[in-house]
Design brief:
5 strands, 35% helix, two-stranded parallel ribbon, GMP Synthetase, Chain A, domain 3, single chain
């Protein structure tokens, strides 16, 4: 048995992990987005990330809904990320809209 588990003052919540700097988290997020083979290069170039205490906000415009959700997943699984707010907008295709008949 691990001796620190027998210590009555040990609390799993007091064990701290190294905290990443917001700029490092931002670099990780953008790096994961840039190497994702499922995102078109045009979409990769238009996505930006802002980080505040590990909370990531994605912004930009992408061509498809799938690109929006793929970028969210890339950000969410990046090191140091606490949560992701996905403010990426999907560009409307030119021509008739779905509701115009």
């Amino acid at each position: 048995m691990y001796p620190y588990l027998m210590n009555p003052w040990f609390n799993a919540y007091t064990v701290s992990m190294p905290v990443m700097d917001d700029e490092d988290i931002r670099e990780n997020v953008l790096s994961n987005i840039s190497i994702d083979p499922y995102l078109p290069q045009k979409d990769k170039d238009s996505i930006d990330a802002a980080v505040d205490n590990g909370f990531v906000t994605l912004t930009g415009n992408v061509s498809t809904r799938s690109s929006k959700f793929i970028a969210f997943g890339d950000a969410f699984w990046s090191s140091g990320v606490v949560d992701v707010m996905n403010d990426i907008k999907v560009e409307q295709k030119s021509g008739k809209s779905k509701n115009s008949e």
